[in-house]
Automatic annotation (TrEMBL):
UniProt xrefs under Pfam families: Radical_SAM
Keyword set, alphabetical order: 4Fe-4S, Iron, Iron-sulfur, Metal-binding, S-adenosyl-L-methionine
Family assignment from sequence similarity: Belongs to the radical SAM superfamily. Anaerobic sulfatase-maturating enzyme family.
One Gene Ontology term from the biological process aspect of the record: molybdopterin cofactor biosynthetic process
Cofactor dependence: [4Fe-4S] cluster
Name of the featured protein: Radical SAM core domain-containing protein
UniProt xrefs under InterPro entries: 4Fe4S-binding_SPASM_dom, Aldolase_TIM, Elp3/MiaA/NifB-like_rSAM, MoaA_NifB_PqqE_Fe-S-bd_CS, rSAM, rSAM_sf, Sulphatase_maturase_rSAM
Region (Disordered): 1-50
GO MF terms held by the record: 4 iron, 4 sulfur cluster binding; metal ion binding; oxidoreductase activity
Domain of life: Bacteria
């Protein structure tokens, strides 16, 4: 598929970075950007659609607009209609085109008539196709004469600006119950990052205090999760029991919450499984595939594979009636067999959900960890898996996280609840913070349970991690579904948690290309695309991309930690 993701695809007054800065606008902050592709690569565009750098260039910086008022104005066209900012014309090949609105998450497909209309608008001419033009105006692709092309962008920024003083409303309490684990998985990014690990689990009184704080700063009716993890939480099962019984006691009438435990299942015995099933604790078990795959990287401290014990724990949980899902990390050790492994998981264990996670560097010093995979290969493999299993309702959390806003035409400001002000984490030391990865590194760690400190220390700052503010994201077709990934990954690859998450940036753009192509395949006419054909997908046609997949609260077919206030 050939694409034209030009940052100046609406340059005639339509590029958000070309207009004058408003009077009184804040000086932009400079942040590192994803690695660019050098000039001389296979095309003149970089891998993310922005212009290639000259050979030898080592760094790129971008601006972050401070607020909606600081977004540069785009000169309106007074004598005719004009494309809104953040629109791209994508060449799908064989005479087919897609006009994409990255912020509205809307697409219109068509033949040469659509292409010619867009080129006329770019050139300052009014297209002759009146029916098409009326629809483009109605769908928000085009503003009439005198309209502000960047107005919708500014409106979204103002919507996010207004949340800076909003009190956080938690949807996730993640309890990092312990700093220790009975396994020594090679790519673990929790245990190796813990500063001054301690042998004891989180104090019971601190757990009670944190659970009460979590409920006090959340909406009783809104779905929310108490996620017990570690380290390996079943090493201290008495504290797991304390969390469950305390939360049940402190819950308000109508409290919409459920428990999830993340475990390697090695220590699960009948009494553990019975308790978890009785209290409807959903169990996420880490498994990377059958024994010959799993045991490559998930071993015990003696260097022996753990699969046999993990399998026994899963079966113990299922016999007791506990709900079980599996969580695999996709790396070099299992990428090429991913579809085969997932089919085997479904046939062997019938899990409620399946996490297929993008492997991250275990520590900030291991950016070149050998098991890491290419972001594009990850996206290609993940979406192929989704397409193969969507009619069976297989919930792949990361795919769903990107695909749902695309299907529903909903802008996603943040990719993680840590930036969205919805995540609360507590570690074994009793410290609290928005992000588990930062917490174990003793970063953004608060000792006092104070909602103002939580908001002022992190949430107000991290809200600016949204692509809606980043000048680098101008011209990107995936801007509306991105959310700028993970602050931990940004820190690892750039030294600054406010930077672009390089690898998420890459795989999100690839997901967007795959989604656009899949949607086109759902709506295209048979045979060659007629030159005068155009079509705006209906809600029903868009939902074909999801198949039977849906997020279901109070199950494991639900995102853990990525529900935000968007």
């Amino acid at each position: 598929m050939t694409e034209s993701f030009s940052p100046h695809s609406v340059h005639d007054g339509g590029c958000g970075s070309c207009g004058p800065r408003p009077a009184g606008g804040s000086t932009p902050v400079l942040l590192p950007l994803p690695r660019p592709r050098r000039a001389g690569a296979e095309s003149g565009d970089s891998r993310d659609g922005l212009p290639a750098l000259a050979a030898g260039a080592d760094a790129v910086l971008t601006a972050v607009h401070a607020n909606a008022e600081a977004l540069p104005a785009v000169a309106p066209r007074e004598d005719g209609p004009q494309l809104e900012s953040n629109t791209q014309l994508i060449d799908l090949g064989d005479g087919a085109w897609c006009l994409n609105h990255a912020l509205r998450q809307q697409q219109v497909f068509g033949g040469r008539l659509l292409r010619d209309a867009v080129e006329d608008l770019r050139a300052g001419r009014t297209p002759s196709a009146s029916d098409l033009m009326a629809r483009l105006v109605a769908e928000g692709f085009v503003v009439d004469a005198g309209g502000e092309p960047e107005a919708f962008h500014r409106r979204l920024m103002a919507q996010e600006d207004s949340k800076e003083e909003t009190e956080p409303s938690f949807t996730l309490l993640r309890i990092l119950l312990t700093d220790v684990c009975n396994l020594s998985c090679q790519y673990c990014k929790v245990i190796p990052n813990v500063l001054a690990p301690q042998a004891e689990p989180t104090d019971a009184d601190r757990l009670t205090e944190t659970i009460a704080f979590f409920f006090a700063h959340s909406d009783p009716a809104r779905p929310k999760i108490i996620h017990i993890t570690g380290g390996e939480p079943t090493l201290f099962f008495h504290q797991v029991q304390h969390v469950v019984t305390t939360a049940e006691r402190l819950a308000r009438p109508g409290e919409n919450f459920w428990f999830v435990i993340g475990t390697n299942a090695v220590l699960i015995r009948g009494r553990h499984a019975a308790f978890l099933a009785e209290h409807d604790v959903k169990c996420i078990v880490s498994m990377d595939g059958p024994a010959e795959i799993h045991d490559q990287l998930r071993r015990n401290h003696g260097g022996h594979g753990s699969w046999r014990m993990v399998d026994a724990g899963v079966r113990q949980l299922q016999r007791a009636g506990a709900e079980v899902s599996l969580s695999m990390v996709l790396g070099q050790h299992n990428l090429d067999r991913a579809e085969e492994i997932i089919a085997w998981f479904l046939d062997t264990y019938q899990p409620t959900g399946l996490g297929v996670n993008f492997m991250k560097p275990p520590t900030p010093e291991q950016q070149d960890y050998a098991q890491l995979i290419d972001p594009d290969r990850y996206a290609d493999r993940m979406y192929a898996i989704h397409q193969a299993f969507r009619d069976r309702g297989l919930f792949l959390e990361l795919v769903h996280r990107k695909l749902q806003p695309f299907v529903e035409r909903r802008y996603r400001f943040h990719d993680c609840g840590a930036a969205g002000g919805t995540n609360l984490n507590v570690d074994a030391k009793g410290n609290v913070g928005p992000c588990k990865s930062f917490l174990v590194m003793d970063k953004l760690a608060l000792r006092t349970l104070d909602i103002d400190a939580y908001r002022d220390t992190v949430v107000t700052r991290w809200r600016k991690r949204s692509p809606i503010y980043y000048q680098h994201c101008e011209g990107c077709a995936a801007r509306g579904m991105c959310g700028n990934g993970c602050a931990y990954d940004a820190l690892v690859h750039s030294g600054d948690e406010m930077a672009i998450d390089v690898r998420s940036c890459h795989y999100t753009q690839r997901f967007n290309q795959l989604f656009v192509r899949d949607l086109f395949d759902q709506v295209r006419p048979p045979g060659p695309v007629p030159a005068n054909w155009w079509h705006v997908p209906t809600a029903e046609e868009r939902h074909l991309l999801l198949g039977a997949v849906a997020a279901r609260p109070r199950t494991l077919s639900y995102s853990i930690g990525h529900q935000t206030l968007d």
